[in-house]
Amino acid sequence: MRNLLVVAVVFIGFNSFGQIEEVRRITKQLCSPEFHGRGYYKKGDSLAADYIVKEFKKLGIGGYDGRFLQYFDIKSVNSFPGVMKVKQDNKVLETGVHYIVDPSSGGGTKLLIPKQVRVHDLMDRDKIGAIIEELTDGRSNFNAMAIHLEGLSKDTLKELAGISQALVQFFPVIEVTDAKFTWSVGSEQFAHPLIQIRDTIYNDGALDIDIDAKLLKNYHTQNIMAYLPARKKCAKTVVFTAHYDHLGRMGDDTYFPGANDNASGTAMLLTMAKYFKENPSEYNVMFIAFAGEEAGLLGSKYFIENPVLKLKKIKFLVNLDIMGSGEDGVTAVNATLFEKEFALLQKINKEKSLLKVVKKRGPAANSDHYWFTVEGVPAFFIYTMGPNKNYHDVFDIYDNLSFKEYEDITTLLIEFVKQLK
Asked: What share of the chain is helix, strand, coil (3-state, %, to 5)?
């Protein structure tokens, strides 16, 4: 009997190890340079989609109603497909570390000679009006503005939000900042370059820039859908979702790996698919990997507007985003809307001694669960908490992921589906 127990424990250990190795393998591949940050440079999103479909096929899981892909177009998206160089004193600055360009930045090749502007000047209508006139009337040596934002509180920065975007329609703007660089996806293109530069690098001098920016119209992309029928015929479907897209590249040489956000969630989506393929549920189980999340939750919005599955047939939806840690537990968005289901999560977590905490959070439009919630579909958005704070930056890399609570999170989700009534 003791020998049988030892064998069982060893088998479980090997199985868990194998699962972690799989999630690591998939995450690492999705973060690789060949997928270009899963964005809009060289169709990085489509390259990643092809890879994910192959992974579903390897598991023996088919598409929904015979098809894996749901195509849609993004009206416009800004991209930086070529050269990206900013030089100060003939020294090339490091993209993503010393500076970033705004997601909606325009391009150009130019020597910027900026007028240095402090916040109190921005808040003085007469002063800022005189500065704008000076930079646009052709009589000044200055051809750009450098706005100094060092040392400002978050509240003050919020008050100033939008000023640079207004000014950049007239001339290039440089924001000098000590805040963390955080990038996103732009849906428009400004008339001129808008650059954020680290205050510890900038010396109030000229910048020599060469920025290739291209606004893509009607960008063709796709959601990915896979499906497993229930053990016995069932009218209801549990849906797991995760967005696979990320921010892409900022020029040829710099890309955003998006390891935690959200290669990790995509890998966990495939892990859940593997489990339910091997252990059929009482419910049908659908898996959706969304595109266009970083561009404004566009893939999930398109799905809601063009559902392949009737929304009223969804028993519950679990959206997986930022799954690479968990040392400090997980947060469940929408917990205040679906208190019975949240209580079930907490009950499972306590009984099985899984995570440090399953934290309650109210509704938020911060990932792909949002549009489903708007349409009345019961849904959680679950994300991990931990020491890894890299988000929407070049440091969100595979090597920074711990997957510390990966096994406990998958156990929590599997048990949630099993006990869902």
From this structure: 35, 25, 40
